[in-house]
Design goal:
Structural class of chain B: mainly alpha
Structural class of chain A: mainly alpha
Number of helices of chain B: 13
Low-confidence stretches of chain A: none
CATH topology of the largest domain in chain A: MetI-like fold
Number of strands of chain A: 0
CATH superfamily of the largest domain in chain A: MetI-like
Order of helices and strands of chain A: HHHHHHHHHHHHH
Largest sheet of chain A: none
Largest interface: A-B, 49 and 44 residues
Order of helices and strands of chain B: HHHHHHHHHHHHH
Helix content of chain A: over 70%
Mean pLDDT of chain A: 86
Oligomer: heterodimer
Shape of chain B: elongated
Chain lengths: 314, 306
């Protein structure tokens, strides 16, 4: 197992290095001079020149990259052009709000997808299965932003059960926070449920067709015991991977949802920074979110290998 | 045992039967796949939705009841009526006409961004898979790095660097989709590269370029066709998300994502505004996904049951 983990981490190093290079160079094709953007169009050319030297923009690009990478490795991703706050602290400040939506959305979807997925697979072809599959397909194709707007229309404009948008601190006002979180969480959970259900059903059907399941039934085990003890255990391994990967995907998928519900998370920070042309923050968010995404993927892989020894030796 | 004997006798009979009719041209893989596709109701629904989308984009000038940019200040935020079938927006523009013209943005984003992705990703996958070694390692590590980004985050990074707008959105979505095409092409190349017909082509002295594009590529088309339809749906979805965030087509050009966003402000006055724009995106994406699923089943003989 240790050898597997070490191998996976070693494979990750070049990918992360390339990711950092892509992030750096994408933000160096920005039209216009960062110093001019920071000081304004009418700034004194001498001041602009001084700032360019201060920011290291007069040096060759590869030197700038090396300096930037060195700083990044020490946890310094620069400062916001707008308020001078450190990019890392800005992202860390917004991260709990994003994490809250991701965790609640994943939990809600699991509460629905697991029981419905099992029933759908065990009663394959029944009306429950057919309805579940149709709903899953619709949920899968439903654009999340449209669903969010429909939820607002229904639950905030028509029946006024929940507020249209906003945020309250979870630690200080937990109940108000949950009221604000309800609609964004539901809009995340619908798509997640659809994906999870499709995978769980397919995984279960795969396992149900295996010889050892027939053996279990032939030796007289009840349907219930067979499904719970033999089928589910084996089908859950790939399912956990999907849940983990979808959780990682949420880091990106939350951008639009946070914007719609004015939820001050990392995605919201990113869009605000793009609008204000605060490139240092956008660059930092892209790098940190991507590192987070890669690390969650790594954890999922390791978890998968832990649960299924065949992966380790493949 | 007896049963098994019968089966083998059956199969030898059917072989003889086939031999008798060997003059008769066998149905091509394409014909078989199309027949399988025609039997798949979900895929047909997908095809109908896709054709409706294309028809709307091509015939927008003929079927739209109004000029999508024509402002009718006296008819602002109207609910659906006989004059305006889906109602009007905050400037009194006809929503149906704007939805119809909006399909042009979606179709062009789909075509151009998938075009960028396919025309870059497919050659990269072909070269990597065929050459192997260091070339392959370099190409695939770069593709892995691009895949390491959550898709929308990379698109947003590129947009924020290039600036908002339709062309930049197409470029961003195209770049994000390149690694998918490269990986699928490479995987298909690896699976057929050692086949006899490829070895034969090389043995008769065919140039690498010929082998890659004329021998290997035609054998990778099935998964690429499926990938294209799914990427097309993804491109429409991402463009709408970018427009929704205010980073797509600038006004007054009608775009579904931007309409969905603006309509949010008028949900209590005319819910149709946001609803119809979202429904258009949903139906387009549903159509492409159904078609993609159907194509995958029809093109894979193992999944085909005709």
């Amino acid at each position: 197992m240790t050898a597997y983990i070490v191998r996976r981490i070693l494979q990750l190093a070049p990918v992360l290095l390339l990711v950092s290079a892509i992030v750096f160079f994408v933000f160096h094709i920005v039209p216009g001079d960062v110093a001019v953007i920071q000081l304004g169009e009418d700034a004194d050319p001498a001041q602009v020149k001084a700032l360019r030297v201060e920011l290291g923009l007069d040096k060759p690009l590869y030197v700038q990259y090396a300096v930037w990478l060195g700083d990044a490795l020490h946890g310094d991703l620069g400062k916001s052009y707008i308020n001078g706050q450190s990019v890392v602290s800005l992202v860390l400040e917004k991260f709990p709000a994003t994490l809250e939506l991701a965790v609640l959305g994943s939990l809600l979807s699991l509460c629905i997808s697991v029981p419905v997925g099992i029933i759908s697979a065990v009663r394959r072809g029944s009306w429950i299965d057919q309805i579940a599959r149709a709903v899953a397909l619709l949920g899968y194709c439903l654009p999340r932003y449209w669903l969010a707007v429909l939820l607002i229309l229904l639950f905030a404009v028509k029946v006024r059960w929940f507020p249209t948008a906003g945020y309250a601190n979870l630690a200080e006002q937990p109940l108000t926070n949950l009221r604000y979180a309800a609609l964004p969480v539901i809009s995340l959970a619908v798509t997640l449920t659809a994906v999870q259900m499709r995978y769980l059903r397919a995984g279960l059907l795969d396992v149900i067709a295996q010889d050892y399941v027939r053996t279990a039934l032939a030796k007289g085990l009840s349907h219930r015991t067979t499904v719970l003890r033999h089928v589910l255990k084996n089908a859950l391994i790939p399912f956990i991977t999907v849940v983990g990967l979808e959780f990682a995907n949420l880091l990106g998928g939350l951008v639009v949802v946070e914007q719609i519900f004015s939820w001050p998370g990392v995605g919201w920070l990113m869009i605000e920074s793009i609008t204000e042309r605060d490139y240092a923050v956008v660059q930092g968010v892209v790098l940190l979110v991507t590192i987070g995404f890669v690390l969650i993927n790594l954890l999922v892989d390791i978890g998968y290998a832990y649960l299924d020894p065949r992966i380790r030796y493949a | 045992m007896g049963h098994r004997l019968e089966t083998s006798a059956d199969s030898s009979l059917s072989l003889e039967h086939e031999a008798l009719f060997e003059d008769q041209a066998p149905r091509s893989l394409l014909a078989q796949s199309l027949a399988a596709l025609a039997h798949d109701r979900a895929a047909m629904l997908g095809a109908v939705l896709f054709l409706a989308l294309v028809g709307m984009a091509v015939l927008a000038g003929v079927i739209a009841p109004y000029n999508p940019l024509a402002v009718h200040p006296q008819d602002r935020l109207q609910l659906p009526s006989r004059a305006y079938l889906l109602g009007t927006d905050e400037l009194g523009r006809d929503l149906l006409s704007r939805i119809i013209y909006g399909s042009r943005v979606s179709i062009s984003v789909g075509l151009i961004s998938v075009g960028i992705a396919a025309s870059t990703g497919i050659p990269l996958g072909l070269i990597g898979g065929y050459r192997g070694g260091l070339t392959d390692a370099v190409i695939m590590r770069v593709m892995d790095a691009l895949l390491a980004f959550p898709g929308i985050i990379l698109a947003l990074a590129i947009i924020s660097a290039l600036g908002p707008g339709l062309v930049n959105a197409m470029i961003a979505i195209g770049i994000v989709s390149i690694p998918g095409f490269a990986r699928i092409t490479r995987a298909s190349v690896l699976s057929v590269k050692e086949e006899e017909f490829v070895v034969a082509a090389r043995a008769i002295g065919a140039a690498d370029f010929y082998v890659m594009f004329r021998v290997l590529l035609p054998n990778c088309l099935s998964p690429l066709l499926v990938k294209t339809s799914v990427s097309f749906a993804g491109a429409i979805l991402t463009e709408a998300a970018l427009a929704f965030l205010g980073l797509g087509v600038p006004p007054p050009t009608p775009s579904w994502g931007a309409m969905l966003d603006t309509g949010r402000q008028y949900l209590d006055q005319t819910p149709w505004y946001s609803f119809s724009a979202g429904a258009a995106i949903f139906l387009a994406v549903l159509g492409m996904n159904l078609l993609g699923d159907g194509l995958r089943d029809a093109l894979d003989p193992r999944l085909r049951q005709v």
